[in-house]
Amino acid sequence: MSASRALLSSPHGGASRTFTRAPTRLAAASIPFARCGALRARTAILSSPAATVPVTSSEPKRRISRSVSDSAPLAKPAVLVAEKLGEAGLDVLRQFADVECAYGMSPAELLAKVAQFDALIVRSGTKVTREVLEAGRGRLRVVGRAGVGIDNVDLQAATEAGCLVVNAPTANTVAAAEHGIALLACMARNVSQADAALKAGKWQRAKYVGVSLVGKTLAIMGFGKVGSEVARRAKGLGMHVIAHDPYAPADKARAIGAELVSFEEAIAKADFISLHMPLTPATSKVFNDESFGKMKTGVRIINVARGGVIDEDALVRALDSGKVAQAALDVFTVEPPAKDSKLVLHENVTVTPHLGASTVEAQVGVLATINVPMWM
Ligand SMILES: O=C(O)[C@H](O)COP(=O)(O)O
């Protein structure tokens, strides 16, 4: 498969187009979790808003009719929250569900626990494997992915187990785009390196001369939701923005002032390359020795998408040779990466621990958007 065909659009666009029209706008702030939980006791049919379509194909099977006379209160559903989410969102969830927050569980702990819950809410750090879904069979009805990427959930196994998977395709878009811009600027001006040096008592003004962004060419690889928001912001910084995405409409790019080009042209022309495609078998390690070889010497790379789209050993080689001058990475093939990772420890690499979606606002938004009780 050619590199061009291999690239899909952003996880913040591609995944939702592939699997779902997803619960994008559930009026989360005004009526979060409406139509759910305790309300079931007096609700005839739990139909969902038209815009809400789960990621997995199976419809909620237990959405049964109840007459008003058959209105004995139902027990609240039990929801296991496996990763840290916004407290304000959790408070709302608690009105409709018995919520247990168990952060940092090992895979074995999750396996032992999951069968006691009607729903499981995760971010990207929890692997919802076939084993987990099998362990939950009989009770677990919903997996809420409080974010975009669903590469950590075995969708096939979920479908077979009759378990819905619901994601939040837009609530963290701006957060991820802002983090991409933050990394771009920090990398160009050596902020993390200079900060560490100064804290170690070194005043090194000559060592940390940066490069300017204005007038430079930025290639956005994957022009979905996050990619296009990064493009908008980069235009504001005076950058020349080109983009590659085989599925993005040219008029969408044009409206932002970006030019859609081929994969080869994008990587060959760019001073900075920002990655925004989902991790799929087709995009795995699409940035490798061959593609680094086609880039300008001194190119700088930002990745807030998924670590697996880069061959990390090849990136270390490209950094060592100077082909890639710097990289700013929020995501890694294995998270957390090994403590002695050559990539993480490389002096020309700026790293953050998958913080793209980690803003107060986004973490309330994703929880409200997936609206887990509504699916029970
Ligand atoms: O897929 C996503 O939504 C982002 O990578 C953020 O992941 P997170 O929910 O684990 O922060």
Description:
By secondary structure, the protein is of the alpha/beta class. The protein is built from 15 helices and twelve strands. It has two domains: 3-171 and 360-375, NAD(P)-binding Rossmann-like Domain (Rossmann fold), CATH 3.40.50; 173-351, Rossmann fold (3-Layer(aba) Sandwich), CATH 3.40.50. The chain is 32% helix and 13% strand. A seven-stranded parallel sheet has the order 8-7-6-9-10-11-12, sandwiched between helices. The protein has a five-stranded parallel sheet with strand order 2-1-3-4-5. The longest helix has 16 residues, at 173-188. The radius of gyration is 22 Å and the shape is elongated. It binds 3-phosphoglyceric acid. The site of 3-phosphoglyceric acid has 13 residues, from loops. 3-phosphoglyceric acid (3PG) binds at residues 11, 123-125, 146-149, 172, 354, 356-358. Keywords: NAD, Oxidoreductase.
Brief digest:
Pathway: Amino-acid biosynthesis. The protein is α/β, with parallel strands linked by helices and 376 residues long.
